[in-house]
Design a protein that fits this description.
This protein is mainly alpha-helical and about 270 residues long. It has 13 helices and three strands; from the N terminus they run H-H-H-H-E-E-H-H-H-H-H-H-H-H-E-H.
Length: about 270
């Protein structure tokens, strides 16, 4: 959830690839913080005045480079360095002086913790189920991504944002793995019953006739079935995600988290 600013085109495209499941979840009314019990617990501690203390600027390079993780689920760990990079990207969409408002800044950090906790659960589930992205699949996705960037504008975009290509590529692969998990484990598992298909077909036919009589004829049957499964996935998401959370519980290193938070009382 972006509370401030608007995402640049490349971030929007990355979000579109990465957050297929967020789109499903948001339609179903769940917040992006739904899956992170520990992150919510940290937020409650702050609200009660038992804030994890940290002074501004404590996320210096030395601390970021120290070994250790901030979030762990199953076999997936999110390191300090990865979290710092994600935070830098997120902060770019907020007012430049957000650190002058500790409560807002800390809420932004905890929102990122929630998002990355969700991500860790999904990646852990994908790893356990043997879901991965091949080199060819990744190369094809990169080529498709670059189509929107003529000549050297893609490299220039990364340079302007001080993002290493290897880091960007790593993020893209994670996004593709999550999408594959969603499609294989959630969407494909939705059972389609004759009555569902008839009602759905009639509804789509009515919508098509109101726009263009030829639309329905042009729609592929497989695409119609996929669209129906996507709709059913919206209703099944909550239970599916809870099952993943139970199987791959999130653990947050509060000591590491504290190095990314600002103590409002010391402002």
């Amino acid at each position: 959830m972006q509370a401030h600013g608007s995402e640049p085109p490349w971030e929007y495209k990355m979000s579109r690839i990465a957050n297929s499941w967020y789109a499903i979840k948001d339609v179903n009314g769940f917040s992006r913080g739904f899956s992170s019990t520990l992150a919510f617990g940290a937020l409650l501690l702050m609200a009660a005045g038992i804030a994890i203390v940290c002074v501004p600027g404590c996320t210096d390079q030395k601390k970021v480079e120290e070994k250790g993780h901030i979030i762990k689920a199953g076999t997936v760990e999110i390191s300090r360095a990865d979290f710092a990079w994600e935070l830098e990207i997120k902060q770019a969409n907020y007012p430049y002086d957000i650190k002058n408002r500790p409560n807002e800044y800390n809420a932004m950090v905890l929102d990122l913790v929630s998002d990355l906790s969700d991500e860790a659960v999904l990646l852990a589930a994908a790893a356990a189920k043997g879901i991965d992205v091949s080199v060819n699949e990744l190369d094809a996705a990169i080529a498709d991504f670059k189509k929107d960037y003529p000549e050297d504008s893609f490299d220039q975009m990364l340079l302007e944002r001080a993002i290493l290509y290897t880091v960007w590529k790593k993020r893209l692969k994670k996004d593709l793995v999550i999408r594959k998990l969603i499609m294989q484990d959630l969407v494909a598992s939705q059972e389609l019953y004759p009555e569902d298909m008839i009602a759905f077909y009639d509804r789509v036919a009515g919508q098509s006739e109101s726009r263009d009589n030829n639309n329905l004829k042009m729609m592929d049957e497989k695409k119609l079935l996929l669209k129906l499964r996507m709709e059913k996935s919206q209703k099944a998401l909550g239970e599916w995600l809870q099952g993943l959370q139970a199987g791959y519980p999130v653990r947050i290193n509060r000591e590491v988290l504290s190095t990314f938070l600002i103590n409002a009382e010391k402002q």
